[in-house]
Each structure stands twice: as structure tokens, then as C-alpha cells.
Amino acid sequence: MPRLIKPNNNAVRHMSYGDFETLTKKRPHKALTTRITRNGGRDNDGTISVRHQGNGAKRLYRIIDFKRSRRDTLAEVVAVEYDPNRTARLALIQYPDGEKAYILHPAGLTVGAKVAAGAAVEPNVGNALPLKAIPLGLALHNIELTPGKGGQIVRSAGSQAILSNREGGYALLKMASGELRRVNEECYATIGQVGNIEHMNVSSGKAGRSRWLGIRPQTRGMAMNPVDHPMGGGQGKSKGGGGRHHPMSPWGQLSKGFKTRRKHKQSDTFIVQRRKKK
After folding, report:
1. pLDDT of 110-125, one tens digit each?
2. For the chain, which domains are there?
3. 241 confidence band (pLDDT: 50, 70, 90)
């Protein structure tokens, strides 16, 4: 469970922190880190292209082996570490020749455990196998969408997908959203649910904590003038200008109920059932 902070003042009255008891190492493995270049949401002209980004605490990027590139080689979990760049924890693994790598830490994987990747390895927590070799009904994470590209989906804290069926060279995955999706059965996936399951219950508690993450404040459209936002202006607290407008972006894009997904997207053929059933 998240750790609550003693309410000494209003700023920390509802603040909570994640569970750090599973961590066994405070400093990252230096050889597997690299510097992050920040742009504050600005493009090469210095113009803001993504709003509400800027500042934030300095952090190193941890290089993660999403491909599980070394196959059929047992590696030992030597540490569980915090990653400031994602909600999941990281597991530092070491191969017999001394090489180390980071992988996403699944729930239940402890220091000293052995993990491996390959078509013939056991379907145990932390092991990576092609979808065609995984028993039905298991929870998976770090799933490839293109064979050999590395895990692209199901990577955040507490997330998992269930392998429900296989047919015609494809595996059917039940996503956390309820979507049923086909994925090439040659794609690799890792067994287990991503750790740090209680992350969703963490409460920021104060605005400054968002600033540490590089998230700048947002101004309500209703509080702006008509020249700045479609919902601005009006006498008193009007619900968007002179009349009642639907919520929208500063550029007039409807923000509630308006479908923004392309009508003829290439990946539509792989979605068997939408997350929102019609």
C-alpha cells in the first residue's frame, strides 16, 4: 500500500508515496545509464509545440533491454531498482559472463531468482518466450507488436494482458482496457504482471510534486478571453463564452466524445474487439 505522509500542513495532508520496500539498490548501474536532453516542450524554433511541459528534476535514463536480446542464457536477478522515467520498477540481471542488463520488474520476482529468454525456456515469471510457446491463460507484459522490435505495449506499473487464444498464426490478447487484439505469435512477451501494482493509488498531494515531474500548470479555457480560447469570455461564470459550448481545445477540437483515431488505421485489422463495445 502507498505510504501516507503525516499531515503537518495542508500541502502534505493527502500526499502519499509508493512502496519502496521492494527496492534493494539505491544507485543505478552507471554503464546502463545515459543523459536525457530536455526541450521544455519546444521545437527547433523555440516555439512551444507541446504545452504544459518544462523544468522538472534532473534524471538519468536507464537503458532497458526490451528485446531480451540474449536467448537461452540464464541470468540472475541481482537488484531491484527505482526508475524515475517510468512507473514500473527495474530488475538488474547479470549473465554468467558478467554482462548486466535492465528489464522491467514483474510482481513476485525476487533477488536471486533466475530468468531467461528463448523459445524453450520454462514459462515462469520474468522469462520471455514467443507467444506461440506460452500456455493459454497466463498474464503477460512487455509484448512485441513486430517480431524482433522489442516490447512496445503493457509496460506500465501493474499492467498485464491475458493470452486467451491462438489462431491462424496470431495470438489473441485480452488487454487491460477490455480490447481483444491479435498479435503475431512469433512476437516475444514476458511472463507475469508488471510490478509496483499500488502505483495507481498514489496521491500527489500538492502542485509542486507535478513540477518535479516536469508538468507545468494548466489554465482553464473558461478563465481566458474569447481571443485566446473558444470557451473564453462571457459575463460571470458562463459555461464557455456567451452560450453553453461543448468542451474543446484552444484550436476548436472537441475534447469529450469526439473520436480522434483515424478511420482507416493500419492496425485496425488486428483489433478483434474494441475496448468500448458498440
Report:
1. 999 999 999 999 999 9
2. 20-200 (2.40.50.140), 222-269 (4.10.950.10)
3. low
